Amino acid sequence: MHINSIIEYLDNLLEVNRFNDYCPNGLQVHGRDDVKKLVAGVTASMEFLERAHQQGADTVLVHHGYFWKNEIPTIVGLKKKRIDFLLKHEINLIAYHLPLDAHPIYGNNAQLAKVLGFRQQSSLALQPLVSVGSLAQAMSLKQLSQHIQHKLARQPLVIGQENKMIKKIAWCTGAAQGYFADVWDQDIDAYLSGEISENTVHTANESGVAYISAGHHATERYGPMALAQLLAQEFSLPTEFIDIDNPV
């Protein structure tokens, strides 16, 4: 399968033109034209690239690629080593950031809801990247924390009263703690994201809305995984997901 056919399909599926993103979406580094095996992951770290190459990948698909806004544009140091590796082995690097967060089926928010059993109902009016829904059955904050730990294999950091009952919930994967200010006055019991900031603790305590930090990496595994599975079906393409553990 030609790399351009895959990029065209993904660009259309994820509607990349809708987003003003912090990085380029789509093909970031061009390797081989003919794609025979794709490996997906969360971040295009050196360890991920090496393991993907060991598994015979000529194409990698990630959520966190390269060339971020406001970063130093020169190709030196770690960036040079990573890009050298891709070019030497003719490996394509495909990355989708906000478009992959937001997709209603294959996106990180939608896939996390599927894993955790959240019923997604809408997006937040003031911030469309934030999903709003409910639990299938109300549970205490302590029970919800245990459920998340079981499903994500990671203990979340939780701010709030353990016995607080949670039914209505909002969530946005990754580094979306900044959206908590858009959530706490929306008649929501809890907000889940990947990371937490110092001021978030005070906002949670004073607003009465529980805050759950479930891990940036842990909450963003499932979009790339689902997208790889879709490509396997659509293009009869061998795919694999490699998870490089990350405590953040």
Mean pLDDT: 97
Q: Architecture of the largest domain, CATH level 2?
A: 3-Layer(aba) Sandwich
CATH T-level topology of the largest domain: Udp-n-acetylmuramoylalanyl-d-glutamate--2,6- Diaminopimelate Ligase, Chain: A, domain 1
Quote the beta fraction: 15-25%
Describe this structure in words.
This protein is of the alpha/beta class and 248 residues long. It folds into two domains: 94 residues, NIF3 (NGG1p interacting factor 3)-like (Udp-n-acetylmuramoylalanyl-d-glutamate--2,6- Diaminopimelate Ligase, Chain: A, domain 1); 112 residues, Udp-n-acetylmuramoylalanyl-d-glutamate--2,6- Diaminopimelate Ligase, Chain: A, domain 1 (3-Layer(aba) Sandwich). Strands 5-6-8-9-10-7 form a six-stranded mixed β-sheet. 42% of the residues are buried. It has nine helices and eleven strands. α5 packs across α9. The mean pLDDT is 97.
Task: Explain the layout of strands and helices.
Elements: H1 3-14, E1 26-29, E2 38-43, H2 46-54, E3 59-64, H3 77-88, E4 92-95, H4 98-102, H5 108-116, E5 118-123, E6 131-140, H6 141-152, E7 157-159, E8 165-172, E9 190-193, H7 198-207, E10 210-213, H8 216-219, H9 222-235, E11 239-241
Parallel strand pairs: 2-3, 2-11, 3-4, 8-9, 9-10
Antiparallel strand pairs: 1-4, 5-6, 6-8, 7-10
Helix pairs in contact: 5-9
